[in-house]
Design brief:
By secondary structure, this protein is an alpha/beta fold. It has 12 helices and 18 strands. It is globular and about 75 Å long.
């Protein structure tokens, strides 16, 4: 029998009415003849209450105990969905992550999936049951409960689908699909019928909150079709797959942006003192993500390397650099705040030269200064003043004609 996996975000469990809506969607797929797995996310209100209690009890809570605590939120959601399905007369069972066979490494709070044993899921399918799995969690080789961190539920949903050889994964969110830009801030943003894994991965890495990059990477690896759709409305959604039909051969298919970017600049007295490998290895060891990197080596000037990080990692990055100043051999470090990253994305850019030139020209005409640039085959990112972020996104959306209704 054909299987599908349905993943619902935390907002889908905000009330009993929301949970009944989840149940209706699961029943609809079951009635179509599918074997159904529902993956639940954390119930936000429950997670917030747990966090509050932890703060009142401990200033240095054990990561192991935190994972055990926070895993209960998604478990509550899965059990409530199972109860509601049973009330509607359907055979349903809820499973924790470890009961569903999700095996992870031991990195508490940010665990990665090593393997999934779907034998128990198969047993429940044989009994005609709808299976509801608590997402964002698993178990390590010492049988300790772990949580998967950001994007954990959708990553688990895609991993389960891969092992079950499911037909697709439906990701239910608070938006009804993937748009050419954020419709709340960019005029004329249009919903895409389809988007490629590579394009979605770039969008996710460049500020889109619709789907986490690790989930997109897994979907691409196992070639799992994914439909991103609204949890509270019946809409067509956006299909995520390997290759898409290029509507009117559009070179650019999306604009993304990310605020609160900080530029760090590290300078050296001499080029011989500079080791990019040592610096970025040290930052990586401290789990600091570096994005755009620009090195400047000019005769008569001290060599520098500049890179961008997110605001929440700024203090830790400064601490790491200061603690390692002697071993890394740099003479000074400076920073600039109040920046943002704006990007254009499209798989058609690889075969169409001149896209970056159009982007830079439009920003020039808008009097928006470009402070840093990063490119790949399917994206161009620029760092601009944060006050100009939304204006830049709208200008680029207009420049590449992404307002066209034919995308719908």
């Amino acid at each position: 029998m054909v299987r599908i996996v349905m993943k619902f975000g935390g907002a889908a469990f905000a009330s009993t009415e929301h949970i009944q809506n989840v149940v209706k969607k699961a029943i609809a797929e079951k009635e179509k003849g599918f074997e159904v797995v529902v993956v639940t996310s954390t119930m936000r209100s429950v997670a917030e209450e747990i966090a509050k209690m932890v703060r009142n009890l401990s200033d240095n809570a054990s990561k192991r105990e935190l994972d055990a605590l926070f895993s209960t939120s998604a478990q509550l959601a899965s059990s409530l969905v199972a109860l509601a399905l049973q009330e509607e007369g359907y055979n349903a069972v809820s499973l924790t992550g470890w009961q569903a066979g999700i095996q992870t490494d031991a990195l508490y709070g940010h665990a990665r999936i090593d393997e999934i044993d779907v034998s128990r899921l198969e047993e429940h399918f044989a009994q005609g049951q709808i299976v509801i799995v608590a997402g964002e969690q698993g178990i390590d080789n010492l049988r300790n409960i772990t949580t998967l961190g950001k994007g954990g539920a959708e990553t688990a949903a895609i991993a389960i689908a891969a092992k079950l050889k499911a037909e697709r994964v439906d990701i239910y969110t608070n938006v009804d699909g993937v748009y050419t830009a954020d419709p709340s801030h960019v005029a004329g943003a249009q919903k895409l019928k389809e988007i490629s894994y590579d394009e979605m991965l770039e969008l996710s890495n460049l500020g889109s909150q619709i789907m986490h990059p690790r989930a997109v990477e897994l979907a691409k690896k196992f070639q799992i079709p994914v439909i991103i759709r609204a949890s509270e409305r019946d809409t067509v959604g956006t299909l995520l797959k390997e290759e898409v039909e290029m509507e009117k051969n559009l070179m650019v298919r999306g604009v993304a942006y990310e605020s609160d970017v900080i530029r760090l600049t590290v300078g050296y007295d001499a080029y011989s003192n500079a080791s990019l490998a040592d610096m970025f290895t040290k930052l990586a060891e401290n789990h600091i993500n570096v994005d755009i990197i620009v090195q400047a080596i000019i005769d008569g000037l001290k060599p520098t390397v500049s890179f961008t990080i997110l605001k929440e990692e700024f203090a830790e990055a400064l601490r790491v650099l200061e603690d390692s100043k002697l071993s890394l051999g740099f003479s000074f470090a400076d920073f600039e705040i109040g920046l943002a990253k704006v990007s254009i994305i499209g798989s058609g850019m690889a075969s169409n030269p001149g896209v970056a030139a159009r982007m830079f020209d439009r920003l020039r005409r808008e009097n928006i200064p470009v402070k840093m640039v990063s490119t790949s085959e399917i994206k161009v990112s620029v760092v601009v003043p944060q006050d100009d972020m939304i204006r830049a996104a709208n200008a680029l959306h207009d420049e590449f004609n992404l307002f066209q209704e034919m995308l719908l």
